[in-house]
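Is this the right way to post structure tokens for a design question? Let me know if I should format differently. Anyway, here goes:
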């Protein structure tokens, strides 16, 4: 599973960070950033799905499985 974050869509609600702090951080402007680009470790896949489902701006996308 690969995780992608569209910075253009992100509005900085930080729901993703609240739900999955292992995968997301917040930059100086309050926007979400990925802690690591690319492959999601197996143990974090459920959290990645949860964060993507809860992003109101549809800024988080997952590919693969
Ligand atoms: S939940 Fe979505 S819009 Fe909100 S900070 Fe995270 S990526 Fe950005």
């Amino acid at each position: 599973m690969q995780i992608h974050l569209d910075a253009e869509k992100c509005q900085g609600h930080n729901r993703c960070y609240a739900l999955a702090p292992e995968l997301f951080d917040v930059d100086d402007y309050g926007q979400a950033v990925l802690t690591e680009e690319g492959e999601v470790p197996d143990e974090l896949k459920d959290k990645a799905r949860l964060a993507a489902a809860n992003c109101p701006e549809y800024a988080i996308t997952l590919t693969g499985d």
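Format looks fine. Someone answered above. Worth noting: The mean pLDDT is 96. The longest strand covers residues 2-5.
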